[in-house]
């Protein structure tokens, strides 16, 4: 099968095309024909990309751990999936990803693509939407009427955090660039703060929940806004290794959970939740998607998606 892999994620961001043997599903796994894969440029810096679970450096890693495609083969225990089903979801962080013609996944990390949602839209959803769900609904248990501050509201995860907080009935305070105000307000934010020209800590007021996608100075400045009993969630990559115990406790790493993805699939179909695709890149032109180079014709917001057909 065709695949794209990092030469060496630690030292070389280039992707090279290679031919790999098609993976064979083990017990309880599904073989997926990938049609589209979501791209997170910082993935090349993540520990599972750089090292195995035992700390051994990895090379020739296939990235992209969220995808949409078609079930090809079931090795047993599929719990409702069968060959021919169109699905979207995630696969294991320490395993090869989906920037290839085929990938492996377990049923518990997948959901069926709802009618009216394209493969490209579906591939852009899993990691960002599940991160927002697990941070707001599981970790913070956000409730109707609470005030939620979303730092980085126009980012890939922030866009879902705004929507999911609003769906739960929370009042959303959003920090972002002014040029994205209209989009994020339409998603449910009730207070918009331009991080470039305004100090959010002077304008936001007390909040019940802080959902941080930025980290660093922004997270540090937000602590003073937290009400007694308030909750903080951060997904900023620097937070997992922070020496601040508050930050380490607030750090969230997303898990693939089929039931959550399935419920959001219904919301996507009903129009309650919106997916954002920044650009669609064909497999033949995908070698630079992790380089940070702007792709011609890209929209401002959303995720880069690579198609494999």
Please provide a written account of the structure.
The chain is an alpha/beta fold and 309 residues long. The protein has 2 domains: 2-125 and 275-307, Medium-chain alcohol dehydrogenases, catalytic domain (Quinone Oxidoreductase, Chain A, domain 1, Alpha-Beta Complex), CATH 3.90.180; 128-250, Medium-chain alcohol dehydrogenases, catalytic domain (Quinone Oxidoreductase, Chain A, domain 1), CATH 3.90.180. It contains 9 helices and 14 strands. Helix 3 packs across helix 4. It starts with a strand and ends with a strand. The model has no long low-confidence stretch (mean pLDDT 93).
Please render the helix and strand layout as text.
Layout (H helix, E strand, L loop, with lengths): L1 E7 L3 E8 L10 E10 L7 H4 L15 E9 L11 E5 L11 E4 L4 E3 L6 H5 L2 H14 L7 E5 L6 H10 L3 E6 L4 H7 L1 E6 L5 H4 L3 E6 L3 H7 L3 E9 L10 H6 L7 H13 L6 E6 L20 E5 L2
Parallel strand pairs: 8-9, 8-11, 9-10, 11-12, 13-14
Antiparallel strand pairs: 1-2, 3-4, 3-6, 3-14, 4-5, 5-7
Helix pairs in contact: 3-4
């Amino acid at each position: 099968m065709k695949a794209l892999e990092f030469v060496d994620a630690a030292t070389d961001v280039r992707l090279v095309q290679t031919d790999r043997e098609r993976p064979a599903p083990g017990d309880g796994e599904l073989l997926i024909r990938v049609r589209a894969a979501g791209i997170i440029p910082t993935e090349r810096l993540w520990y599972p990309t750089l090292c195995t679970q035992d700390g051994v450096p990895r090379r020739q890693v296939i990235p992209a751990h969220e995808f949409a495609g078609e079930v090809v083969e079931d090795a047993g225990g599929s719990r409702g999936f069968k060959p021919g089903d169109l699905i979207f979801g995630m696969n294991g962080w320490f395993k090869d990803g989906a920037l290839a013609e085929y990938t492996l996944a377990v049923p518990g990390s997948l959901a069926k693509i709802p009618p009216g949602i394209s493969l490209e839209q579906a591939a852009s959803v899993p990691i960002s939407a599940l991160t927002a769900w697990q941070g707001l609904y599981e970790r913070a248990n956000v409730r109707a009427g609470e005030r939620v501050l979303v730092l980085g509201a126009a980012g890939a995860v922030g866009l879902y955090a705004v929507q999911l907080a609003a769906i739960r009935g929370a009042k959303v305070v959003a920090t972002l660039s002014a040029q994205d105000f209209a989009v994020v307000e339409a998603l449910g934010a009730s207070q918009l703060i331009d991080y470039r020209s305004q100090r959010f800590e002077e304008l936001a007021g007390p909040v019940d929940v802080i959902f941080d996608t930025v980290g660093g100075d922004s997270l540090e400045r937000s602590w003073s806004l937290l009400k007694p009993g308030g909750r903080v969630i951060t997904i900023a990559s620097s937070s997992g290794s922070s020496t601040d115990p508050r930050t380490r406790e607030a750090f969230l790493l997303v898990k693939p959970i089929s039931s959550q993805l399935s419920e959001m699939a219904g919301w996507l179909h009903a129009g309650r939740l919106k997916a954002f695709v920044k650009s669609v890149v064909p497999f033949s032109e995908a070698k630079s998607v992790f380089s940070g180079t702007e792709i011609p014709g890209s929209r401002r917001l959303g995720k880069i998606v690579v198609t494999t057909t």
